[in-house]
Design goal:
The structure is a homodimer of 494-residue chains.
Chain A (H helix, E strand, L loop, with lengths): L12 H25 L3 E7 L5 H9 L7 E5 L14 H4 L8 E5 L8 H4 L5 H20 L3 E8 L2 H13 L9 H8 L1 H14 L7 E5 L3 H19 L35 H25 L3 E7 L5 H9 L7 E5 L5 H4 L5 H5 L7 E5 L8 H4 L5 H20 L3 E8 L2 H13 L9 H8 L1 H14 L7 E5 L3 H22 L2
Parallel strand pairs in A: 1-3, 1-4, 2-3, 4-5, 6-8, 6-9, 7-8, 9-10
């Protein structure tokens, strides 16, 4: 869930002041309301050392009534606490109805720090994930609102902050040996955190990734996340809202992968011809090899309208043996399909061992078009992230190679292509009224795409964003990515 | 969940006819109603070879409209199917809205047969349990009603049936080599089935154990189970019920452990004195040993009013070093406790490593008094079985020895003790109006106790039923059971 996300987000000072004042008022008011309703609230802060947990917790509690919350600083277990199961000390700290408990680090230490240091391994690790999910599920089933924030900074930013802290005698003590070890082994910690986020990102207690380079941005993101979670628990009437909450407007603090995608990437026709040919040849050889070795491959395409999925798929399959692959175009579900679980029709089309299935649009429709157009309920699409991760994990358990491509173009390029389609006779069939309607909702779609990209980027099935303003670049990138992934797996299992 | 259950249950012919006619009508009517409501239904039959799955499925479908259901006989995967993830072929068979799919064996084969034959082990097995839970959860989240019946027969009964089948040329082909292997390795299969039942017994898709020695009993139990599950999905008005469904009357087909408990077991005062003294001495030594080796022990007492919990606990602790144990009496939760999850107060009292905690009544109040008296909702107590198993599993992960005792007396003995308490001045404090009121609801309590005993008997924390009409026997049995369990663990970890 941390892969590729844009950490450069910022908020200007004036805008911050304006938004923050409003957020303070809202939060104070919501605290009183959830107290009156008896809703217990847990806010968890996890993340990198020096990401600013302390500062941000201070910001969060300022507008709160201090009689209503407790901050718990969860360091490792004491000698005494080590004599109990690891969740025991957290059970004791769960808030009573109407109170808020804020955790500076939490029960996730066991599956990150303790894991990297080798204290928790193999079976214990899997048990710990199970225990954590069960713990959080029991609390939310009982009515607790759980908000989990993960404060993310890059390795460079962490280094910069440690340096600044150590430069002054009054702050140098704040950088501990543990912190330095984390910095040295940043990549290992990153892998463990990524795993932790995926394993414990549930519909009842989802994670919010907070880009923490800019303090103002991080503060506002945390405030809006907590406010949003509490608002869900307070009926609209109690919030004195005249109207029911409108479908969320595009969220200015959403985690983004797309914002810093370099759409200027391109290939000359000559480069394109050479690399395309080479990759197509390689893929054909790999197609035989996976057949012989009985490895199934799933290639999933999603992307904006007019991003060039069709042409891209054509180039991917151009040179393949048709007995070894199948392209599955996905449209709106028919009546029979609607009468089943939405994953049913995709399960049925998964490749058998040794074959490649290419999906032109996919099961992600649930969290894209169905979410934005209201074709499913909010509970359904929120649940879907975990359902989809579950399905992809089952495929991974079986040994499937899973590649997911998001074909990305910007709004201007899309407009240019739409207009071209309207103007050129033989392309006119490609453009409909619906494309224009979807385009108007681009903001909402963009929110949905961003959430999909980070919530379903897992260690076993991550997304590749394909810069597609230049179709040549996009086609070669997909082909080369597929070849590399298959090669890597075959070498690994050799 | 199979441990100790009474397999001798029967229904007489006349009673069967009367109940069956009624059940046929109800089932046919419910099938039409769930069809109209668009509820998809899955009925799973698992269990021993020769337990009668085929016969019982035939019974079940007779009153059904054949246009509304499909029976799937799920043998092992075909060569073709083996090229897909193991749940793939079941995804394809999930019913459309309003239809019923009946499975003769199911996706659980992977965690029973394939496990015993060594095809699925270690990590794969845990993944398979996860995949199954996720599969069932996704379906029920989507509105599918899942009914899972496990047909249980003893090893002797299985042998008897195999013999009868093999005696005749027309039926001998029905006993396969696989069946004979299962019979030879009955104990191994039993352990795997027990594990499977516990791991996949969820509030959204619980198991029903069907005692299958008597065909009439098994048939009626299956019918009532399916009817009950469907009735939950059809609103009372649609069932033409004038009144909302009354709290379930004592269920005549409940799985029972208690019915065949031998309450005549007793000890003479002399035997009692000798064995008590010996066991108390042993336990004191073990108390030091677990302290040195840092093993935590939980001893949970539940039982009927006047079953003798107090006196039993006194004998258990009489000779112990008070620094090593604690007795926690559990009454109704106070206001602070009520403001938390119901497990919170029990978590807080769990023993630290090296100590013994004895609970005089326990977290099982949720599925006993709170269920029967309506102090919690049906959803809450149904969820509680899995929550409790989850908590006990976490304790087991930590290395805790967990012993659970149900002190059992019959209604006559309880009456005798109640009357004695009223008559003897110094015992009068022990009896209240509430005891008499509870006694009136004994049937409902008994259903709750039985369900608790089988749903929460797990490989990591099983129940011991203590025959307590003779208090001397009960005290010695508890002491000796505790000693044996601790001894076994210490030897195992030596």
């Amino acid at each position: 869930m941390l892969k590729n996300i844009d950490l450069t987000r910022e908020v200007a000072k004036e805008e911050y002041k304006r938004l923050k004042d409003d957020a303070d008022l809202k939060l104070g008011c919501l605290q009183r309301q959830v107290k009156a309703l008896g809703v217990p609230v847990i806010v968890v802060f996890e993340g990198w050392s020096a990401a600013g947990k302390g500062t941000l917790i201070n910001e969060l509690i300022l507008p709160l009534d201090p009689r209503g919350f407790t901050v718990h600083s969860a360091r490792g277990p004491t000698q005494e606490e080590a004599f109990y199961p690891f969740l025991w000390r957290f059970w004791k700290l769960t808030p009573t109805r109407g109170r808020m408990a804020i955790f500076d680090r939490s029960w996730n230490r066991r599956v990150v720090t303790d894991r990297v240091t080798g204290q928790v391994t193999g079976k214990q690790l899997r048990q710990a994930f199970e225990d954590i999910r069960s713990f959080e599920r029991q609390l939310t089933d009982d009515g607790v609102a759980i908000v989990k924030c993960f404060l993310h900074i890059s390795k460079n930013e962490q280094q910069r902050r440690f340096k600044a802290l150590r430069a002054s005698a009054t702050t140098s003590w704040r950088v501990t040996n543990d912190d330095l070890r984390q910095h040295e082994r940043y990549a290992e910690y990153l892998a463990a955190m990524e795993d932790m986020l995926v394993e414990t990102d549930t519909d009842n207690a989802p994670w919010t990734i907070v880009e923490a380079h800019d303090r103002r941005f991080a503060t506002l993101k945390i405030f809006t996340t907590v406010i949003d979670a509490l608002e869900r628990r307070v009926p609209a009437v109690e919030r004195n809202a005249e109207t029911p909450p409108t479908p969320a407007s595009p969220n200015p603090f959403k985690t983004t992968v797309l914002d810093h995608v370099d759409l200027s990437l391109s290939l000359t026709p000559e480069e394109y011809a050479t690399r395309l040919k080479k990759a197509q040849g390689t893929l054909r050889e790999l197609e035989y090899e996976i057949y012989l070795r009985r490895v199934p491959v799933v290639i999933a395409y999603e992307g904006w309208d007019a991003a060039g999925k069709g042409g891209n798929i054509r180039r991917l399959t151009q040179n393949l043996d048709p007995r070894g692959y199948e392209v599955v175009p996905v449209a709106a579900p028919n009546d029979v399909e609607k009468a089943h679980h939405y994953l049913w029709r995709f399960w049925a089309r998964m490749p058998k061992a040794g074959h490649i299935t290419i999906f032109d649009r996919t099961w992600y429709g649930r969290v894209l078009v169905e979410r934005v157009e209201g074709f499913c309920t909010e509970a359904q699409w929120r649940r879907a992230y975990r359902e989809i991760n579950g399905m992809e994990q089952q495929l991974a358990h079986f040994g499937t190679i899973l590649l997911k491509f998001w074909l990305h173009i910007d709004a201007e390029e899309q407009l240019r292509r739409f207009q071209e389609r309207e103007e050129v006779t033989h392309k006119r069939w490609k453009i409909t009224e619906e494309d224009w309607r979807n385009r108007e909702k681009m903001g909402h779609y963009r929110d949905a795409v961003e959430e999909m990209l980070h919530r379903t980027s897992t260690p076993y099935a991550s997304w590749t964003v394909v810069e597609s303003n230049c179709k040549r670049h996009a086609r070669v990138k997909v082909l080369e990515t597929v070849c590399e992934a298959i090669r890597k797996r075959l070498d690994h299992n050799a």
